[in-house]
Write a structure and sequence with these properties.
single chain; 314 residues; alpha+beta; endopeptidase fold (from Nostoc punctiforme); two-stranded antiparallel ribbon; 39% helix; 13% strand
Length: 314
Amino acid sequence: MARIAMDPDQVRAMANTANRTAESIQGHMSQMVSAVRGAEWQSQAREEFIERIETLSRVNTQSMTALRLMANAANQKARQWEAKASRFNAPLEALDGAWDSFLDHLNNTWQGLLNSISGIVTGGFTVIVGGLAGIGDWFDNIKFPWERDKTPAPTSPETQPAPTPEAPPAEPPAPERHYPYPPNQIALRETKDIRSCARYAASRRPDLGSTGSGPHKYEAAANYAHKFADKAFQIGEGERGNLKDAIGIGYAITWEPGYKSHAEYGHVAIVEEVYDNYIVISEATTLCKNCPYIFRTREIPFEELANENVTLIP
């Protein structure tokens, strides 16, 4: 707990004592009223005595309510100063004699309350004018000495400003895109060379040239991915629904051997159309073993594109 210019635990203990005292006094007064009413004697003096003891009981009830209000005021002050101390981010040193001064001030305000109980007299007993409606504002004005004198609450000379919180770590940069953005459109040539998928692709895009040697069989279509490794790329989940931002018409697309392609040579085709979640390719292919090559177009869905065995070449 922060050290402040009052001990909040001591204030709360005092407030609890006041509440318990109020309950005890009111309980004894209720017993006294019951005892008087239960006394079996008849006379004019009895009625007057009962009237006066009941008036005294009402005054006592209001006085005990006022005592509880004072206890609540003290509790509220403790909460206020705890909240203020937490905003200093450092402890506040105690004032010498501050607690005694505070108790003296409460004693003075209690005397002010007693002085305010006047105005209506019944049988020699006074009652609070207007009940307790006007006392609430009076309790709100109870102040500590430094509040009353408008002097600042003491602070420790060792108080240090709160450290500036460290800035959150910067977000890592987005990974670099390994394909043109926006995709370049490649001018394609017309061709009737469908002797193989690789010959067809190279006829449409002369820059592809021969497949050459590579990790796969000589002149395997899949070797194109190795030949153009400096610019070839693969599609990931980040392009789902946005293939137009990654793939351009005229791109070559290759399949590794065995993945939806020839077991030794793989496959290569040319991109003809691009949509959000699929592309349209043209290719030279065979429909059965030892069948002649034919030309055709077909759609390739995103799920087939987003695979480590499929590579695109701008």
